[in-house]
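Case study B.
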Amino acid sequence: MDVIVRTVVKGLFPFVILFGVYVILHGHLTPGGSFPGGVIIASGIALLVISFDLKKAESVIKERAAHVFEGLAGLFLVFIILSLSPLRDILMPGGKAFELWSAQQVLLLNVVGGVMVSMALVTIVYLLMRE
Amino acid sequence: MRNVVFAVCLLVLGSVFLYTFLSPSFGSWERKDVGRYYLNTGLEKTGSANLVSSIVWDFRGFDTLGEETVLFTAAVGVFTILVFRRKRSG
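Model:
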């Protein structure tokens, strides 16, 4: 891509990632959550891959790291959901509703699920771009 | 023989359409207990202001686990296909 696109993407990329993190973190307060937030983060990485190349995107997150994070997040997600009933009292010590620190279980699962969704989509983008 | 099969198919299709038209319209079922329960107790039970999120991650967590499994399987499938093809060709 030409220099205009590259400059715009270079300036826009942190804000795309920031917006994705915001959507994930406020998933229990506003519309959104782990799936849209993860897709936004992955689309930021895909923007980098398209406008620059794979090397530039790998300076942000390496392909192997994406695999590892995806697997770990999936494992953690299975662990949390399968052990919800015994862990419920530990995970939910309270907190005021309508604030960021509330609904700890939904918040935690949103964050872990967001990591997993974004890393899975980044993995797919990397693998397809290598072909 | 062919006419019989055709008649049976027509009968099944007709009964399905009839069932759809005769059943109550979407959203007006008599038993709304589950939805009303979620609406009434969702906030105090989960503390989440976003009711959709609380249903997705709390009331129906196992559903979402299956959903994430689908995504994981998709990534693993793409990985498997592309990496094995790369190994075979190169």
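Residues 78 and 84 of chain A are 10 Å apart (CA to CA). The remaining cases will be described in the next quarterly update.
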